[in-house]
Amino acid sequence: MQFADRLNNVETSAIRELFKLLGRPGIISFAGGFPDPALFDVEGIKEASNAVLTDAPGAVLQYGATEGYGPLREGISGFMANKGAKVTPDGLIVTTGSQQALDLIGKTMISPGDKVIVEAPTFLATIQCFRLYGAHIIGAPIDADGVDVDKLEKLIEEHKPKLVYLIPTFGNPSGATLSLQRRKRILEIAARTKTLVVEDDPYGELFFDTPPPPSLLALSGEVPGSREWLAHCGSFSKILSPGLRVGWLIAPPELLAKATMCKQFSDAHTSNLTQATAAHYLTLNRLDGALAVVRQTYAERARVMAASLQRELGDSIAFNAPQGGMFFWAHLTGANGKSTSAPEFAKRAIEKMVAFVPGAPFFAHDPDLSTLRLSFATVGVDRIEEGIARLGQAL
Ligand code: PMP
Fold first, then answer.
1. What was the pLDDT predicted at 15?
2. How does strand 317-319 pair with strand 327-332?
3. Inter-residue contact 291 to 239 (CB < 8 Å)
4. Are residues 302 and 165 in the same domain?
5. pLDDT value of position 21
6. 56 in the same domain as 14
7. Ligand 1 pocket test target in 99, 166, 244, 327 with most atoms within 8 Å of CB
8. Which structural domain, as residue segments, surrounds residue 302?
9. N or C: which terminus of the chain carries fewer CB neighbours within 10 A?
10. Residues 6 or more apart from 306 whose CB is under 8 A from it?
């Protein structure tokens, strides 16, 4: 069959290939990017879905508005207000996961050959999605405090990109969090250079000890002109349930209108049943309690992973322990005569029945082959210790 030219630059993800091996019994997997299903508030979601099917079956089983289910748009507006970001219900649309918000941004903003700046490394599905629209993707380097703003500023001036895509808080895969000072500078640069910045924030609520700095969206009120150049993608996937497929897009009115038009041709609207369930859930006052358990559980797993990595791999591996989210980003240093090739290491690890994701696919170009991503989210502490010990034997 003759497929569309736009598919020429996109391959199925290397990670998917790896996932085929993960079904083996006994394997300890740090490769996934899923939240722990044992932490889903099943009772709360049951209560919410029963309530909406009882109270408004006609509305939740019917077609609905492309922009989203009214009570949920209000609920998200309140949720964002609690995080310091002012947005009216009609300043956002509900999307089918934040993945769809990213796709709508790609569809509305990117023409073939347009330049887009992302963090190096960044979320693989965004690289793939933007490439599908023909983006020429440029990576900006990061460190423990997120993207290097001096270099980002130079890249923006040099390439005049269509947009800059950032995951400022507990990045996937980097685990890094952009400092407050850098956040403000990015907003200033966006306003001054009139560059659209897309803030993807699915992990901000998953902090361990102290909340992260406010989102770019929350800070945009302090930097004149920046809100006009800012889009924000949010999601209930990591805080409530990814299976609901409920995310949202906040963007300047013109962009939001175009995205809504594109969504109309894509899925008409996000499931009313799951939107109404999420909206009702927010009124149950259960989210804070459920999130407290998730934060505590992930914090402990992250602490155990950091200690185990230090104990079992020593200075052969370097990493910055994350302060939230679901991921460790690490690199093989080559100390003690050990390998610096993460792909080779991944193969030996699979033989020892432990898995992680080599970091190369997370780079749009010039991959660093010594890097890897480890997720602690779905593995209990005993299994983390055992899995990292196996990694120590595989290195
Ligand atoms: N952005 C990032 C950075 C992610 O890691 C993910 C999911 N892994 C998404 C967006 C998409 O999430 P969802 O569509 O479930 O909201």
1. 66
2. antiparallel
3. yes
4. no
5. 74
6. no
7. 99
8. 5-41+289-394
9. N
10. 319, 321, 328
Query: Sheet of 230-235: strands edge to edge?
Result: 92-95, 247-250, 230-235, 196-200, 163-166, 115-120, 136-143, 146-147
In this prediction, residue 14 carries a pLDDT of 63
Quote the Cα angle for 33-37-38, to 5°. 135
Q: Is the minimum distance from the CB of 234 to ligand 1 under 6 angstroms?
A: no
- pLDDT tens digit sequence for 271-315: 999 999 999 999 999 999 999 999 999 999 999 999 999 999 999
Domain boundary among 239, 266, 283: 283
Instruction: Give me the percent of the chain exceeding a pLDDT of 90.
Output: 94
Residue 291 CA: distances (Å) to CA of 43, 208, 239, 297, 384: 14, 11, 7, 10, 22
**Token representation of residue 74:** 């209000």
Does the beta carbon of 97 lie inside 6 Å of ligand 1? yes
Instruction: Check whether residue 24 and residue 49 sit in a common domain.
Output: no
Give the tens place of pLDDT for each residue, 187-235. 999 999 999 999 999 999 999 999 999 999 999 999 999 999 999 999 9
Q: If we measure between CA atoms, which residue out of 367, 379, 373, 363 comes closest to residue 320?
A: 373
The verdict on the CB of residue 175 being under 6 Å from ligand 1 is: no
Tell whether 151 and 186 lie within a shared domain: yes
pLDDT score of 18 more than 90: no
Count structural domains, the chain: 2
> Which contacts qualify for 179-183: CB closer than 8 Å, 24 or more apart?
179/145, 179/146, 179/213, 180/213, 180/214, 180/219, 182/145, 182/146, 182/147, 182/149, 183/213, 183/214, 183/216, 183/219
The enclosing domain of 128 has a CATH number of 3.40.640.10
Q: Is the per-residue pLDDT at 23 higher than 80?
A: no
233 and 334 co-located in one domain: no
| Domain final residue pick, 283, 307, 338 | 283
User: Quick one: which atom of ligand 1 is closest to the CA of 235?
Assistant: 16
Whether 196 and 274 share a structural domain = yes
Residues 82 and 214 in one domain: yes
